[in-house]
Design brief:
Elements (H helix, E strand, L loop, with lengths): L1 E4 L5 H10 L12 H9 L9 E5 L2 E11 L2 E9 L1 H5 L2 H15 L4 E7 L3 H9 L3 E11 L13 E3 L1 H10 L11 H7 L4 E7 L2 E9 L4 E7 L1 H15 L3 E6 L4 H8 L1 E13 L4
Parallel strand pairs: 4-5, 10-11
Antiparallel strand pairs: 1-2, 2-3, 3-4, 5-12, 6-11, 6-12, 7-8, 8-9, 9-10
Length: 272
């Protein structure tokens, strides 16, 4: 086995390997080379810290690392069974940790399916500590059109971030913190429900991936805004919501249901 940085391989080869391991019930997990290239151009995906392992001349494992305010977010960590048997998963993690320290990142974070005990064990062996529980949600039925508002405003992502930051219930995961959303703004859409001159709720979505990235606001307004996003922007998934986030109940009212439970892990590297 040989290890390389993501910058040293074709992105389409990395995407192919990542998609082989993507959960079949969560379509936003699928990636294309063009998406990876755009994330790199926007300063989010770090192709030097991100690592791959090569097996028989092909990408046999991949770990994507995105730059976030706290350090690095491991948005994907996958390994072919044969590469895993040869220690590929641990090699990937060790290489990412070494590259992250060289880049003076303060912390690495990752989210793992609660059902993936093998990956949880791998992370624990590398020094990662369990943090909190998250959930993924998906439309299990047609959205609740009785909640559909007449209109919702499309607003700049920066305005949405400014509103979200004022909401005491907004606890974004590292991958959707305000600084990251601002970098990703060219590929995102932000919606707000405004009543009597006041913003009642806002959300940020990725239309290409049919995914709500983050949201906050008054519960009833959130439910209505989620229905609007589903009906008019064809959103079908929500990712990385803390299990105790009030938005979970609002999304259930809108027609979404819990798809899977995930656990956040982190590794403190030191002060950048």
């Amino acid at each position: 086995m040989e290890r390389k940085s993501l910058a040293e391989v074709e992105l389409r080869d990395a995407a192919f390997q990542l998609n082989r391991s993507a959960p079949s019930n969560f379509l936003p997990a699928l990636r294309t080379a063009s998406q990876l290239r755009e994330l790199a151009m926007l300063g989010v995906l770090d192709q030097v810290i991100s690592q791959v392992v090569m097996l028989a001349g092909k990408v046999g494992g991949c770990c994507l690392v995105e730059r976030v305010p706290s350090g690095g977010f491991l948005s994907a960590l996958t390994c072919e069974p044969l590469a895993q048997q040869r220690g590929g998963g641990r090699d990937l993690l060790d290489a990412v940790i070494t590259a992250a320290r060289a880049a003076k990142l303060g912390q690495l974070t990752i989210e793992v399916s609660e059902a993936d005990t093998a990956q949880e064990s791998l992370l624990s062996s590398a020094g990662f500590a369990r943090q909190h529980t998250l959930c993924r949600m998906a439309l299990a039925q047609a959205p609740n059109r009785t909640l559909l508002p007449t209109e919702a405003a499309v607003i700049p992502v920066d305005d949405a971030v400014s509103f979200l930051a004022t909401e005491t219930t907004w606890h974004p995961t590292p991958s959707v913190e305000g600084e990251v959303l601002r970098k990703l703004a060219p590929r995102l859409t932000a919606l707000a429900l405004i009543s009597e001159g006041q913003t009642r709720a806002a959300l940020v979505l990725d239309k290409e991936r049919k995914l709500i990235l983050t949201l906050a606001g008054e519960s009833a307004a959130l439910a209505s805004l989620a229905v609007f996003a589903a009906v008019h922007h064809f959103v079908a998934f929500v990712d990385s919501l803390r299990s105790d986030d009030p938005a979970v109940d609002a999304l259930r009212e809108a027609g979404f249901s819990r798809l899977s439970v995930r656990t956040a892990f982190s590794l403190v590297l030191g002060t950048p």
